[in-house]
Write a structure and sequence with these properties.
Largest sheet: 7 strands, mixed
Organism: Catharus ustulatus (Russet-backed thrush)
Helix content: 40-55%
Family: Belongs to the transcription factor STAT family.
Radius of gyration: 39 Å
Structural class: alpha+beta
Subcellular location: Cytoplasm; Nucleus
Number of helices: 25
Keywords: Acetylation, Activator, ADP-ribosylation, Coiled coil, Cytoplasm, DNA-binding, Isopeptide bond, Methylation, Nucleus, Phosphoprotein, SH2 domain, Transcription, Transcription regulation, Ubl conjugation
InterPro entries: p53-like_TF_DNA-bd_sf, SH2, SH2_dom_sf, STAT, STAT1_C_sf, STAT1_SH2, STAT1_TAZ2-bd_C, STAT_linker
Distance between the termini: 64 Å
Amino acid sequence: MTQWYQLQQLDSKYLEQVHQLYDDSFPMEIRQYLAQWLENQDWEHAANNVSFATLLFHELLSQLDDQFSRFLIENNFLLQHNIRKSKRNLQDNFQEDPIHMAMIIHNCLKEERKILNCAQASNEMEVGSVQNTAAGMPDKQKELDAKVRAIKSNVTEVEQDIKTLEDMQDEYDFKCKTLQNREHESNSMSQEEYKKEQLNLQHMFLSLDRKRKEVVDKIVQLLQITEHTQAALINDELVEWKHRQQTACIGGPPNACLDRLQNWFTIVAESLQQVRQQLKKLEELEQKFTYDLDPITKKKQVLQDRTHKLFQQLIQSSFVVERQPCMPTHPQRPLVLKTGVQFTVKLRLLVKLQELNYNLKVKVLFDKFRKFNILGTNTKVMNMEESTNGSLAAEFRHLQLKEQKNTGSRTNEGPLIVTEELHSLSFETQLCQPGLVIDLETTSLPIVVISNVSQLPSGWASILWFNMLSTDPKNLSFFLNPPCAKWSKLSDVLSWQFSSVTKRGLNADQLSMLGEKLLGPTNGGSQDGLIPWTRFCKENINDKNFPFWLWIEGILELIKKHLLCLWNDGCIVGFISKERERALLKDQSPGTFLLRFSESSKEGAITFTWVEESQNGKSPQFHSVEPYTKKELSAVTFPDIIRNYKVMAAENIPENPLRFLYPNIPKDNAFGKYYSRPKEAPEPMDLDGPKGNGYIKTELISVSEVHPSRLQSPENLLPMSPEEFDEVSRMVGPAEIDTVVRTMDQPSRRAGPQPAFSLFSPLHTYLRHLSKHLRTCLFRSIGKAGDTELGWDCQHLFFPCLQGEG
């Protein structure tokens, strides 16, 4: 079952989230036609490899051609046209930048998985809450549904009452005119009959007056219910949705879709529109017939003003930013915009009225403090075709910001750096209907404008801090006096930074270590501990020369580019203090190791620490290799580094000390599926042609050189005399060295007769010197015995160095 098929089985609120993932740059119809194929490709790899991305781009075009052929056979002209148009759009958008396409598809598939997981979790929660609901627990959404249905029902009831009232008034008017006509006719009726008719008209008038009062009272009650319901929609539901949107923007759970909210808003708006028409009808009836103390005359203006105010308030509140400003190049980092780089933003009107289609022209404006020019089309008409669910929407896809030089003033008067200056985009439109003009305006969440991509991490930190602690989008002076954050909130936000770009957030142990870094070892576990903004983003952390957030940012980049699979599999402990690390390893088998992030690298680095058996009954020894940065991991994958890592002492045989990933997973079981496959040399096609290029192939591995006391003490490492060297060279050729030594070396490890080689020691000495001569190792640093970080080197041609046995 494809992921796409599973998505289509979800409720509408989740389907709306899926709709939001796709636009014209990569339309949903392609996702539909090529569902299986798209899910089978490695888009994550393509997003980081231009050649692979180009290959997949051309394969995708080929898949579209195949789909077009199927539509051709079916004589489906419309689908032929659509798929041909989609192909042209893909070529126009991604022919020169296939990596961008791969990034979009990878992000869409990833977000789809999040939506599926969210839906499954929601279903489990609903199953668990059935008993509570059945026991009479209040259900907010059901209450709102009931109130909205009551409004619609009451409007229908008033509509029927007005029709009845109109019939009663017509009948009364007819009777009055008939009586007047008969009154002018001589001998048409007796005095008694006339009084009887007058009495009858009097009863009709009283009934008419009661009905008018009844209708007016029902409209008053209807507007009261509408006002309370509308307040709940605007002040509760909409505010909660906006808060969830803030949370989703900084990596939190996906925001619930707007469909249900739009349905409520639309029903209330339609009801108010009907009330406006009903009041006009009452006014028409009043113009035809009125009297002293007429309830329509008495309350007409109040009801009209109240209805107008409610409708205006509802329409103004329904104008929202459905998708906050975001650069397509950084979909996980919305609200940080770089000058000269395109960004997108989507507006939506939660009131779905057909008469508003193509009547609302939206204009984009920048805030009035620090001036920027908005490049691109900054006006657009809202229409129902812009969205997939028929709502009124307008999406701006090609906007850019360009700073005006030497004009305007800074957003804030305080000494704020660029990445702390908050701005906002405003969107304006006007609703014009007969007798009704409503100005609509909404603003984006605060944005940070940068001019260099190096400012992105600091800008994103500002967005995190604001949306974690403030719900007022107009508070652009927030960083003049930024509040402290509780660790309980900040820990969630930090975990979201990992779960939003990987499949795994931070667990309690990892967060505990980070809490200690920010709050100190004594307060690290306090959920109520307060972290100042400067401590999070500006001050150097502990004794390092960089702040906490830039350290986290470097690790995130390292994971995304080089360690994603290992992180997702849970192989990396990551955030752990050295004390806690040793406490975990001390009782483990020798060779047990764990992976953690370096605390001393701003750019992000990873190391491994292993435990060795104690010597002479002493405490176990722990050794940590010098951390690997993205520079080294770009040359060799981390699983290959772990597989090939060697430790050597003097001229002993290099050995790999890594055996078990903590707690007790055999190394190859944990990392084997990620090892690089050996490359097979292609067979030459021309047997008479040149063979090779004359070079010996090399392999990049990591080696640490340590003091001989770390391993068994070597013996008989005296150099050979020239005579010994000549004798060994005469007896054993270089190609036979490994076989001879293996034959000699094995018996030396067990009791029993030794092989009859008179040159046993000189041979070993020769082999040691030969291997030492052939190895070309450059050791960047030399470690010490005991607890230390070992030097490493990953660029040499490795030949085994053999350990002497005496």
